[in-house]
Amino acid sequence: MDADDGLGCRLGRIEQMVRYAYWQAGCKGIVIGLSGGIDSAVAAVFCCRAVGPENVLGLLMPSSVSSPEDLRDAADLCSLFRIPHEVVSIDPMLEGFQTLPGFTETPYLFGNLMARIRMVTLYYYANRDHRIVCGTSNRSEYMLGYSTKYGDSAADIQPLLHLYKTDIYVAARELGIPEPIITKVPSAGLWAGQSDEKEIGLSYTEIDSALQALEENSWKADNPTEEKVLALVKKSGHKRMPAPSLLTGSQREG
């Protein structure tokens, strides 16, 4: 997303998509999880611009490993854009799962569990209040599979799914997202000190450049970075596909 290449029109199309999905669903509002990070902040502001902040509910869902700064940044965002919000700790729910027979705690298992608990919580509020759930995934993470199946990848609308992570930063500045949110190190907040770029092993600038080059070159890699990104895209293909079944296309439509 070039800052001077029809940016206003591009942002306007996102608002229109959110507004159309909202009207088509016949719902009474939108609910979105706010992590204190840039993706959820940008998605939330698009929702506010599309349907009004009074129709958007932000859920802040910290755990014991969440950064206090993230919680503060999410609350500040809500205050700035007049988004009604609630804080719901997921620790009691995590403790419930820890009573499962054979429960095993690793960063991978616990991180995925937290993501799915947060999505269950969002859908509880959506069901209770007749809202739709707004997702916060971007194109970079979607293509690499950097998400939890039926966790942060689940949603009723995905306003950022066509935007690379580097595009999100352009949109954030245009929308007036607070600087502390824009400049912080990207993190899913699934364990202390977790960093998206460290976990992936590449910066988002490298990832986005590689994805764009691969798409332009019929998904043929020309250098080690593109090879690594392509391998991640292939490995995560199952996350972008519906669950395998023997239903035919006509049976699905029926």
Order of helices and strands: HEHEHEHHEHHHHHHH
The end-to-end distance, rounded to whole angstroms, is 38 Å
In helices, the fraction of residues equals 40-55%
User: Could you tell me the radius of gyration in angstroms?
Assistant: 18 Å
Q: Report the sheet with the most strands, covering strand number, pairing sense and barrel closure.
A: 4 strands, parallel
What average pLDDT do the residues reach?
A: 92
Count of DSSP-assigned helices = 12
Task: Report strand order across the widest sheet.
Answer: 3-2-1-4
Dominant shape: globular
* Low-pLDDT segments: none
Percentage of β-strand residues: 5-15%
- Which structural class should the secondary elements be placed in? alpha/beta
- According to DSSP, the number of beta strands is 4
Commentary on this structure:
This protein has helices at 7-25, 38-51, 68-81, 91-97, 107-129, 139-144, 165-175, 179-183, 196-200, 204-216, 224-235, 249-253, and strands at residues 29-33, 56-60, 85-87, 131-133. The chain is of the alpha/beta class and 254 residues long. Strands 3-2-1-4 form a four-stranded parallel beta sheet, with helices on both faces. Strand 1, helix 2 (38-51) and strand 2 (56-60) form a beta-alpha-beta unit. It is globular and about 50 Å long.
SSE layout and pairings?
Blueprint (H helix, E strand, L loop, with lengths): L6 H19 L3 E5 L4 H14 L4 E5 L7 H14 L3 E3 L3 H7 L9 H23 L1 E3 L5 H6 L20 H11 L3 H5 L12 H5 L3 H13 L7 H12 L13 H5 L1
Helix pairs in contact: 1-2, 2-7, 10-11
